[in-house]
Every structure is written in C-alpha cells, then in structure tokens.
Design a protein that fits this description.
Radius of gyration: 16 Å
Number of helices: 10
CATH architecture: Alpha-Beta Barrel
Strand content: 15-25%
Largest sheet: 8 strands, parallel, barrel
CATH class: Alpha Beta
Shape: globular
Distance between the termini: 7 Å
Length: about 250
C-alpha cells in the first residue's frame, strides 16, 4: 500500500499538503485532514471551532481535497485524506477524487467530539456497523483505496468484529488508534487480511517495535509528525521489519 511503512496521521485543521511536504522524505503516506464533507458534519466542525479547535472549513470541501492531493502529486509519498460525513453522496464524490489521485480515502470513525458524534459521524459509526459498512461500500465501489480510522476501548465495540465487517464491505485498510491497548492490534491482524496501520504513541524505536511485534503492517505518527528526528527513528525501525523497496 505504501513504503516506507510509516504514515503521517491526520491532525485536525493542521494536516495539509504543506505539512506533509515538509517531512515527505521520512514517510510513505500522509493522511491529510480530517475534513467535514456534508452539512451536518460541517455544522459540527463550526461548533467545534467555537471551542478553539482547529478545523478545515473551506467553502467547497471536495475541491479542497482535490487541490490538496494535487499539491502532493510530485511528493515522494502516497497521499490520503481523512473525511467525515453523515451522508453517502459526498463520500462517493470524494472517493472519485481520491481514486483519480491514486490516494487513499480514509473514512473517519474515530473523532469522539460530541458535536461530530451527534451529527452521525466519527466514533458514532463504531456503534453502527451497518452505517459504517454502507460508507465503506459506497467508497469502494468507485475503485478508490479505502481505509477506516477507528479507536480502541469503546464500550460495546469489538474491533476484530468491526474489522471483519468493513473488510466484507470492501475496505482495504484499517487505521487503529490503540488508545494504550496495543495488543488490540494483534486481535485485528488475526481477524482480517486488511492492511493494518497502528497509531497512538508512536514516537521512537521501542513504540514502533511493539506495534510491529503485534503484526501491524505499518505505523502512523500523529503529534510528532513534524519532528524529523522522531520520524527518522520510526522509519529506521519500519525498514528493519519491512525491507525497504520502491512502491506506491
């Protein structure tokens, strides 16, 4: 899916093409976003900015995704975009854009902000596997590469069961925020053939190694994604586990 097996994880209102290009030589993939696509999630994002959260709120979110991915066309990594939507048509449209750029579309079932969950996006999708599967199927039917960003330790949610469900719906990857429950990565790896990206606390050789020992195909770096020294160490670890090769 990408090499080296290190991704830059999306940061609300911060992860744009300039952010990715600044450290592009250290990673194999950059998840831009997240971005709200439809009226309900855009209203939620506006409410979240009232609490001093950073959010991307361009007038035309689909055009924004297109332009941002276009700005990565000559970068030495694979582009990806984390999106939030409560409805299906915008997902189909943005999936078409991602496919055209050979980018990964990442459906956000991760955001736990109250406003976004109330809108029917983010973490609320973890508790509604049918809706999440419909989002995955809608995106996958365009031919786009589809990832789902999830979080562990959500009451009543079995990530291995959810992973099997989204795999059947057409997902290619699952991006797991382990939430200090690193062993859940092994459970997801054992449950599916999805490409598993492990996230949360990846900052050095030790933390990356732990996830690779649990079977992760790749790791992602969030808050430290603008720190080349951290990314160098994580990439070296990834290259030891997955021999480097040229791949997009």
């Amino acid at each position: 899916m990408f090499r080296p097996r290190v991704a830059l994880a999306s940061l609300s209102g911060e992860a744009d093409a300039d952010w990715a290009r600044a450290v592009a030589d250290h990673a194999g993939c950059a998840f831009l976003g997240g971005i709200a696509l439809d009226d309900a999630t855009r209203e939620a994002a506006r409410a979240m900015t009232d609490r001093d959260r950073s959010e991307f709120l361009p007038e035309d979110p689909i055009a924004f995704v297109d332009a941002q991915l276009g700005a990565l066309a000559d970068a030495p990594l694979r582009g990806a975009f984390n999106v939030r939507s409560a409805t299906l048509p915008p997902i189909e449209h943005v999936a078409d854009v991602c496919r055209a750029h050979d980018a990964i579309l990442e459906l956000n079932a991760h955001c736990r902000q109250d406003e976004m969950c109330a809108a029917g996006a983010g973490e609320s999708l973890l508790r509604d596997a049918d809706r999440l599967a419909r989002q995955v199927a809608t995106a996958a039917e365009t031919g786009a590469t589809v990832s789902v960003k999830v979080r562990a330790a959500v009451d009543g949610v079995s990530l291995p069961d959810l992973a099997r469900r989204i795999e059947r719906a057409g997902a290619d990857a699952i991006h797991v925020d382990a939430m200090d429950s690193e062993a859940v990565v092994a459970d997801v790896v054992d449950a599916t053939d999805l490409f598993v990206i492990a996230n949360n606390g990846v900052r050095d050789r030790e933390s990356a190694t732990e996830y690779f020992e649990h079977g992760a195909d790749a790791v992602s770096v969030g808050r430290a994604s603008d720190a080349p020294d951290v990314l160098d160490e994580v990439r070296a670890t990834a290259d030891e586990w997955h021999a480097p090769e040229v791949s997009r």
